[in-house]
Design brief:
Layout lengths: L3 H17 L10 H19 L7 H8 L4 H17 L5 H4 L12 E7 L5 E7 L7 E7 L48 E2 L2 H4 L5 E7 L15 E4 L12 H7 L15 E3 L1 E4 L2 H6 L3 H4 L2 E3 L1 E7 L5 E5 L2 E3 L42 H4 L1 E7 L1
Antiparallel strand pairs: 1-2, 2-3, 3-4, 3-13, 5-6, 5-13, 6-8, 7-10, 9-12, 10-11
Helix pairs in contact: 1-2, 2-3
Length: 366
């Protein structure tokens, strides 16, 4: 005759150990599959306590201090996580965890997952207009003197070529590039650009090469604003879908055939300071207080975003709009097509200010 103590040892050796072995993998099982494992545990619990098969299992499990199967799985994962975070687990487990502590728990680097399960890094702003802004892209001009050369990912890296009207096509494709930390020193685009379904946008013009930890300082920004009318719901929920409707492509339409112009709410700056960021000649052509998408100039070159302004008269949008397709007038091709037309930063004629030209444009969704 086997005693209760011996029977318990046998059950733990041949049943419980098997139920617990690699049970973290059971998180993907449905309730039907887990119920089969639970039935096994219930059977041995009644055997150990010599209870009737009709006896309710909850008080029996409570008496034995046995957790239900789904709770055993969660408990195992939580214990492993705790040990990994506190140096009590093997290195190969600890290295799988990414521990993040946000500065003041208000903003910083986070990891998100796409609908297809892809993990990616982003920067979240939790302070502007109620927070919840996710960085999806940045447009950085690596050389204002280059003309659709290497680094002009938001126009063309393949030269100024009318036979490649879309250029690199990154406004409406699923290419990704760059890193969060270098978003003010190089172009950046993460999967959130096409995967997130959003309602509004926030745009920050941040000086080139400014370290990430200083981005959220309002005084550091050249210009910051956001939309508040949920306009993205009308255009598919993100820029990827919007630019499918309004392609950034050479010769896609005539001058003035632009996309939507959306009113903005200023977070740093105002209409007058926005006007002054662009050249005197440009100021005659736009109205500040908007963000405009897919503007087309006299030469039928398309630009993706007119930041802070809406073209109203004249179509020299290459001097105050960014991004583009694959072909411009020979003196205009690039991510900031012709911001340097009358010499960089001299604030004369058509040239944009040095502050605007030497700042990366960060694009956020909410």
């Amino acid at each position: 005759m086997v005693s209760s103590a011996e029977l318990e040892k046998i059950i733990h050796a041949f049943v419980s150990s098997r139920l617990d072995y690699c049970n973290a993998l059971f998180t993907i099982l449905d309730k039907s599959s887990l119920s089969r494992l639970q039935a096994i545990q219930n059977a041995v619990a009644r055997l150990l306590t010599r209870s009737s098969k009709r006896a309710h299992i909850t008080p029996i499990s409570y008496c034995l201090h046995w957790l239900p199967i789904d709770f055993r799985i969660r408990f195992k994962i939580l214990v492993l996580t705790y040990r990994a975070l506190n140096g009590q687990a093997p290195d190969y487990l600890s290295k799988l965890l990414i521990k993040y502590t946000a500065a003041r728990c208000l903003y910083g680097v986070y990891y998100l997952t796409t609908g297809n399960g892809m993990l990616y890094q982003t920067y979240c702003d939790m302070t502007t207009a109620g927070g919840g802004w996710t960085l999806v892209a940045s447009v950085h001009e690596n050389s204002v003197y280059g003309r659709c050369t290497v680094g002009d990912r938001w126009s063309s890296q393949q030269g100024n070529n009318a036979d490649l009207p879309d250029g690199d096509g990154n406004w409406s494709n699923r290419n990704t590039f760059g890193t969060v930390e270098s978003a003010t020193s190089d172009d950046f685009k993460n999967p959130g650009y096409y995967d997130i379904t959003a309602e509004d946008m926030s745009v920050w013009h941040i000086p080139n090469n400014l370290p990430l930890e200083f981005w959220n300082m309002e005084a550091a920004a050249v210009l910051r604003y956001h939309t508040g009318n949920r306009f993205l719901r009308l255009y598919g929920g993100n820029l990827f879908q919007l630019f499918k409707q309004y392609p950034v492509r050479y010769n896609v339409g005539s001058c003035g055939d632009r996309g939507p112009a959306i009113p903005i709410v200023y977070d740093h700056g105002d209409k007058e300071s926005t006007r002054m960021l662009y050249g005197p000649s440009s100021r005659r052509e736009f109205e500040p207080g908007f963000i405009t998408f897919r503007a087309i100039n006299y030469e039928r070159a398309a630009m993706a975003i007119c930041s802070g302004v809406k073209p109203t008269v004249g179509y020299n949008t290459e001097h105050y709009c960014i991004g583009g397709g694959g072909y411009f007038h020979p003196d205009q091709c690039g991510d900031f097509p012709s911001f340097d037309y009358d010499r960089l930063g001299r604030e004369q004629g058509w040239s944009a200010s040095r502050e605007m030209t030497e700042a990366a444009v960060l694009l956020f969704y909410r």
